[in-house]
Each structure stands twice: as structure tokens, then as C-alpha cells.
Design a protein that fits this description.
Blueprint: E1 3-16, E2 22-24, E3 29-30, E4 33-34, H1 36-42, E5 46-48, H2 66-69, H3 86-97, E6 101-106, H4 125-141, E7 153-156, H5 171-188, E8 193-199, H6 205-215, E9 226-233, H7 236-252, E10 259-267, H8 274-280, H9 284-298, E11 304-307, H10 329-343, E12 345-351, E13 356-362, E14 368-375, E15 392-399, E16 407-414, E17 419-428, E18 433-439, E19 444-451, E20 479-481, E21 487-489, H11 493-505, E22 510-514, H12 519-535, H13 540-550, E23 564-569, H14 576-586, E24 592-594, H15 601-604, E25 612-615, H16 618-627, H17 631-634
Parallel strand pairs: 1-15, 2-5, 2-11, 5-6, 6-7, 7-8, 8-9, 9-10, 10-11
Antiparallel strand pairs: 1-12, 3-4, 12-13, 13-14, 14-19, 15-18, 16-17, 16-19, 20-21, 22-23, 23-25, 24-25
Helix pairs in contact: 4-5, 5-6, 7-9, 9-10, 12-13
Length: 636
């Protein structure tokens, strides 16, 4: 069996971990099953809104595109009545509520139909630019009863080199439109990022160089804060190669500071075999392709990388299941990248095999670090079966990690059996380490490392979090994913699984509706509750006061500990009354307490929640249950 060596040197900082886990399009619902939480949890930096008009749940053809917002081109572009912002406002607000920023594509969705509507050449380039100006003013400056969303990136058109489907005119006509629009918008909004043109490929050299030549002809330099392009491939290396081609072209034409944005990419090996790549995209193979592609572009000149597509109802969406909207395997590859991204500082890495890619990061104060390794080859198998001969021994070596005397490492795996769950962990001394893993094809490995792990004065299972005791956001929480996609602290998993199984054996069927929540997710939950009360007519102050009775202030939620679970009945098998009664009588036997009892709201400052249970350990739970007290009283 082949031995592959990868290593990370934490003493050599190479730059920043880049925002390479952005997507096209935002969250959606299907019969009440929303994926907003998963957007927040994965920390997608940007959602580009191209092709949103294909999705009914975003608003369909009434959303985003210029011809939807400004349907009558002969109308007065200075009159708010000429615009229809309603569904676009809702869509953009929903994206931003998850913590993801909108990357706004000015133009139109691709048109495969025989008749074109948005791909037509605008009758008046100056007017088209002014329409775009008013869209920006509406979303960013409050014009026309608008908003202050702070959208930073504004892209002019999409794939204008794709004749007829996206642009019916000549290349020169588009070059002129871009020049007029970019010049006008940059003059109006010098602080924003204005760019484009989202070409199909930098390999389309005559078109690309014609464009760059036009906007720099006769000594002029049309504004272009970023250059965007697309690439679909079955080889992660091509994404890096194409970014280097683009960088050379921009430097050649005098745009050395323009950002490089590859904002459409996914797996395609042969455009004539759609069944093959559509089945690959959401698969285990797809997850390794995503992880390997993101790692590849970290080591390239690329600044942004945007997966196509997170939109519901398309075969390109390998992130979320088309029916129940829960994550597919490739989602966890982007989720893993966010862990490195939050740490911030990229460090030097090496691999002895180009098919086994590695990236590593640490935070600024050197207290935490992570290593991501992914193994991808373009094998025919999509689930890993039949690839046993490709399995390798992986030797992972890291050096100069911390000066701490004690280090804790947690190993998480994305493979056929795991969706980035924790599979093992260890504590050890020293700044260097070497570990050997058996690595099957399509496996992604995430190692999370923490230094200076102190002995706790209060046991981990008795940590008090409430309005007077905020959670340390640097706290290390080992997480395990439970059935149904909810995470909890790994140390409570055996008792939690046993409790659910024993309840089911007695005829009481329940599931975890909420487990671990990040502080970002907690902010989303709080804001959603506030908006609900405001919609009922309450003032901002009253809505917030009411929301804080039922939702913990971000930073004070037990869900952020990973020790709390909201238990709900499985519909059609048990009722709330049955499940809550069973839990009230039996949960303490498994180490869980009813955290917010009805008669303790004056102490807990949270309303009665018969579904919310907190792990404290069997001995403590038995004492709290027998005494009929809450955790605050027990810890006095």
C-alpha cells in the first residue's frame, strides 16, 4: 500500500485563508423545511444571486433580474413607481439574515428558450447603467423605501461570451455596455466593488483579450475592481491553472490589483454526459472533489470561489437534498473549510502526492489550529465502492505548532460513513506530531487542534450559561453529529442515544430538533423572533423584550455549549404531551435535566420550555431532579 506524506509547518505563515466557500444563491424552504440554519452553520461568505429567477421559492421570474425589477424599459428610471423590488428585497434580506453577504449580479439569468427577453442588447446603455444605479441605491441607501444592506460586490452581466443564451449582440456591443455601466457606477459608488464580466472561461482568449483591450484602449482604463470568470471541470487542478491564466492577463492589461473571482464551478467531465455529472455532484465523490478544489484554489491567485449552485430545484445543487433540504456530502466539505477560514492565518503545507491535498490554518494568538486533507481522483465510482485498491497510508506531520505543554487534537472524517463527525481525539505534549491514517479514496480528514487546555475549576458538564454568565467564545467543544444532522458535545452522545432508544422502546418516539448552535445561528434565531413580534405590531423595544423571554441572548444560550437539546415528538408516532411527560419523569436517569421549569422562570429568566433538556451528568441530574430545583440553585 502506498504511503503518502503530508505536512504543515505552523511557524511559516503564508497569508490568509481565503473565502473560498461562497455559493450561488441563498436559502429556501420546501413545505416548511428550510435550510437557513445550514447556511449560517457553514458560514458561507457570499451568495451570488445569478439564476435566482429560476427558483419559485425565491420569487421566480419576479426576482433579481433587471427585466424583473424594471419591467418597462421605456419608463422613467428616476421614478420609484417604475420599479418592482418586493420579492428581490425579501430574497436578499433572507440571505443576509443567515450571516451570508449578497454578491449581486446585475443582468439576467441564462435563457435556454427559443425567445430571448433579458439577453437582448439594452436600447440605451446609459439608461441601463442608471437603472443599475437606482437598484444599488434602493438596496444600500434606502432609496424608494429601500434598505441599507451594505452589499459590496456588483457584477455587470453574466457570460456575455455565451452567444444568444446570455447576450444576443456582438462582443463589441457588450464591451461598450460594460464600459458605460462600470464608469457610471464607479463614479456614483467609489467605495463599492464594481466588476465582471463573468465570462464562461478564460480559455476564450479572443473574447477575453478583446474585452480587456477595449476597456484599456487609447490609454483609458475603465473601472474593474474584480474580474469574474467560470470553469467546470473534473480536475481540481484546472481551477488553480485558470486563475493563474486570468492573473497573467489582468497584469498584462494593467489591472494588477483587480480581484480574481471564479464564481461558477462544479464537477463536469463531459458536457454531453449530463447523467454522469449530475449523479456525481451530490455524492461522496462530489464531496472530495469540492474539498480538493477549495484546497487547490487556496494555493492559487484566486480571491473568491463560488460554488454553483445552492439553489433549490436544480441538478447543480450538490449541497442540499432536493426534497428534505438537509445537507448532502459536499456541504460538509464547505463546512470544514469554514473552520479554517475562521482561524484566519494560512500556514505552509506540503504533500508528496498531487491527489492528496492539504491546507492548514491557525488563529492569530496561536491557541487554535486546524488541518484539512482531501484525497480525490476522478474514478468512475461515485460512492467509493470498488476503489479499495486506491486506499493509501497517510502520514500527517505537523511542526512548530504551539509552545504549550499540552495539546488536544480532534479528528473528524467525511467519508461514506461519516458527515464530518468526530471519530477520535487525543491529548499530548510537544509542538511536533506525526500520525498515520488509513485513507480511502474520496476521504476528507479535518484535524482540529487546541493548545493550553487548562484544568477546569468547574466540571465541563456543570458550566453555567445564562444572562449573567456569557459563554467563552474561544471554548473548545468537541462535536458529534447525531442522526438528523444536529450536533452535540461528543461527551454526551452515549447517554443521549440511550435515552432516545429507551424512550422509543417504551413507545415514546422523539428526535432532536435543535442541538448545538453557534453564536451566529443564535443571532439568526433571536432576530427571527424579534421580526415576528414586530410583524404583530410591537415596537422594536417591546419585540426585543418579548423575544428575550423565549430566546436566549446570543452568547448566553445553552445550545452554544453543545450540552442542550430540544426534544420533539416524531409526528404520527407520539404527541408532545406524551414525549414531554416521559422526559420529565425519566431524563434525569440519563444525566439530563429540564433546564427551564415552569416554576423557576424568575430565576432562569427564560419561559417554561418542556422540550429543552440540559446534560449535567447522572449524579448531578438525580440530585437536581429529587430536590426540584434548577441549575442556578444547585450551583449556589
Amino acid at each position: 500500500m502506498e504511503n503518502i506524506r503530508v505536512q504543515a509547518d505552523f511557524a511559516r505563515i503564508t497569508g490568509k485563508i481565503k473565502p473560498l466557500h461562497s455559493v450561488n444563491n441563498g436559502p429556501a424552504s420546501s413545505r416548511g423545511m428550510a435550510n437557513d440554519q445550514y447556511f449560517t452553520d457553514a458560514g458561507f461568505p457570499f451568495a451570488r444571486n445569478h439564476d435566482a429567477a429560476f427558483c419559485a421559492q425565491y420569487g421566480g421570474s419576479h426576482t433579481v433580474d433587471i427585466i424583473a425589477i424594471f419591467p418597462d424599459f421605456d419608463a422613467d428610471e428616476n421614478d420609484p413607481a417604475s420599479y418592482d423590488f418586493h420579492l428581490t428585497d425579501e430574497y436578499c434580506a433572507r440571505i443576509q439574515a443567515t450571516g451570508t453577504k449578497v454578491f449581486y449580479r446585475l443582468g439576467n439569468k441564462i435563457e435556454h428558450e427559443s425567445k430571448k427577453y433579458g439577453a437582448l442588447v439594452p436600447k440605451d446603455y446609459g439608461k441601463w447603467a442608471r437603472i443599475c444605479e437606482h437598484i444599488i441605491r434602493h438596496l444600500n441607501e434606502g432609496w424608494a423605501d429601500g434598505h441599507h444592506m451594505g452589499i459590496e460586490y456588483w457584477e455587470i452581466w453574466n457570460e456575455p461570451d455565451l452567444k444568444d443564451k446570455c447576450w444576443t449582440g456582438t462582443p463589441e456591443q457588450f464591451y461598450e455596455l460594460y464600459a458605460v455601466a462600470a464608469t457610471h457606477l464607479k463614479k456614483c459608488f467609489p467605495h463599492l466593488h464594481i466588476g465582471g464580466p463573468a465570462v464562461t472561461s478564460v480559455n476564450n482568449r479572443p473574447w477575453v483579450e478583446g474585452f480587456l483591450g477595449y476597456i484599456t484602449a487609447d490609454g483609458k482604463k475603465v473601472p474593474m475592481d474584480f474580474f469574474s470568470f467560470h470553469r467546470y471541470s473534473c480536475k481540481p487542478k484546472e481551477f488553480g491553472d485558470h486563475s493563474r491564466i486570468a492573473r497573467e492577463l489582468l497584469d498584462k492589461y494593467g489591472y494588477p490589483d483587480a480581484e480574481l473571482i471564479l464564481n461558477e464551478w462544479n464537477y463536469v467531465d463531459d458536457w454531453s454526459k449530463s447523467e454522469k455529472y449530475y449523479t456525481t455532484i451530490p455524492s461522496l465523490k462530489g464531496s472530495a472533489f469540492v474539498a480538493s478544489s477549495v484546497i487547490e484554489t487556496q494555493h492559487s491567485p484566486l480571491d473568491h470561489f463560488m460554488y454553483y449552485d445552492a439553489r433549490r430545484g436544480t441538478q447543480w445543487n450538490g449541497l442540499f437534498h432536493y426534497i428534505h433540504n438537509r445537507p448532502e456530502k459536499p456541504y460538509w466539505a464547505l463546512y470544514a473549510w469554514n473552520i479554517l477560514y475562521k482561524l484566519g492565518e494560512a500556514v505552509a503545507v506540503e504533500s508528496s502526492d498531487p491527489d492528496v491535498r492539504i491546507a492548514a490554518a491557525k488563529n492569530e494568538d496561536g491557541s487554535r489550529a486546524a488541518v484539512l486533507v482531501s484525497y480525490f481522483k476522478d474514478h468512475d465510482s461515485i460512492d467509493g465502492s470498488g476503489t479499495e485498491s486506491e486506499t493509501v497510508d497517510l502520514t500527517l506531520h505537523w511542526s512548530n505548532l504551539f509552545s504549550a505543554s499540552q495539546i488536544r487534537a480532534t479528528y473528524r472524517v467525511l467519508d461514506a460513513a461519516h458527515d464530518l463527525e468526530t471519530v477520535s481525539g487525543e491529548s499530548f505534549d510537544g509542538s511536533d506530531a506525526m500520525h498515520v491514517f488509513r485513507l480511502p479514496l474520496y476521504t476528507t480528514l479535518l484535524v482540529e487542534i487546541e493548545a493550553d487546555v487548562p484544568e477546569e475549576d468547574i466540571p465541563w458538564n456543570l458550566t453555567l450559561v445564562n444572562r449573567d454568565n456569557y459563554l467563552d467564545q474561544n471554548r473548545f467543544i468537541p462535536l458529534t453529529r447525531m442522526p438528523g444532522a444536529e450536533c452535540v458535545d461528543s461527551r454526551i452522545v452515549p447517554e443521549l442515544k440511550q435515552m432516545i432508544a429507551d424512550a422509543a422502546a417504551e413507545g415514546f418516539h422523539m428526535y432532536i430538533s435543535w442541538g448545538y448552535r453557534s453564536i451566529k445561528t443564535q443571532r439568526v434565531v433571536m432576530n427571527s423572533r424579534i421580526q415576528r413580534y414586530k410583524a404583530e405590531g410591537k415596537s422594536e423595544e417591546d419585540a426585543r423584550r418579548e423575544a428575550e423571554i423565549w430566546v436566549a441572548i446570543p452568547g448566553t444560550s445553552e445550545h452554544e455549549l453543545g450540552l442542550a437539546v430540544d426534544m420533539m415528538p416524531i409526528e404520527g408516532k407520539s404527541t408532545e404531551a406524551e414525549v414531554f411527560a416521559w422526559l420529565a419523569e425519566n431524563a434525569y436517569r440519563y444525566g439530563f435535566i429540564l433546564r427551564y421549569p415552569k416554576d423557576k422562570t424568575e430565576i432562569t429568566k427564560i419561559g417554561f420550555e418542556p422540550w429543552h433538556y440540559r446534560y449535567v451528568g447522572k449524579d448531578h441530574a438525580a440530585r437536581i431532579h429529587e430536590a426540584g430545583i434548577c441549575l442556578e440553585e444547585y450551583l449556589k
